[in-house]
Design goal:
single chain, 322 residues, alpha/beta, 41% helix
Amino acid sequence: MRRNTTRPPKSPRRAALPLAALGGVLALLLGPAAQAGASAEAVAAAPDIAVADVKADLKALQDIATANGGNRAHGRAGYRASLDLLKGRLDAAGFTTTVQQFTSGGATGYNLIADWPGGDTGKVLLTGAHLDSVTAGPGINDNGSGSAAVLETALAVARTGFHPAKHLRFAWWGAEELGMVGSKNYVSKLTTAQRSTISGYLNFDMVGSPNPGYFVYDDDPAIEKTFQQYFTGLGIVTEPETEGDGRSDHAPFKNAGIPVGGLFSGADYIKTAQQAAQWGGTAGKAFDACYHRSCDTLTNIDDTALDRHSDAVAYAVWNLAG
């Protein structure tokens, strides 16, 4: 996530989880026999994303950064090596991948787009994360965590042979840290007709913060409700995401009139006593004290938060894909 020098006023906290979300909890508790309709079937089908697999991806990204000057930033060898790693795994899993080039700051940047065969291409569910780090460090939470969670969800689609009604597309954006350059480039090249086919864009930028929060984008109500249902099932209270509003790759899609949603575990804002009481962790400290620093390494990850958020990615894809 790119740094914001002006902090927006915080929105009022979501005091209580919506009663409507209890239906999703009951469906999970009562099992498939008690479920009815496509939505309930999707709840039952959503796979568990093994946190060990997500951590293995983060280890690979850390190794790439270590071998390439300590970072995976736009225009640096570590970024291209990160993209090539993901592309190879997606190609092997049966995705159709495309590398989209753009230029920023005199350097060539890249987006990686992966399409899963099948589904209605007139109704595309797009799930993404930015793959680049800042130059100061390897960017394992920001945003290796979101990139790995999206990767493992995509691989779970292939592993389970998931073929929903909607067409599934996954994306990893370049140069987000320079102002969402990659995602802006992607959106700018869409025709009006192509924009209309994207039923929703899900963004995951920092989902393993070491002093984590559980923030849900409050943009599109249907997408927001889906994430709230997942966390309700875990007994976790969520809050509206305000720290990263307009600072990550959902912004170009939202500005183009495309429904957006996503999750965030917190950056350099300070965790309050109330937040620590409901989520654990340490009040009076940043959600991620290593945000945009060299210490954003493998040790800068909370495994529980990473596990929960990764499962939430899959839950949303399975439920919103129709």
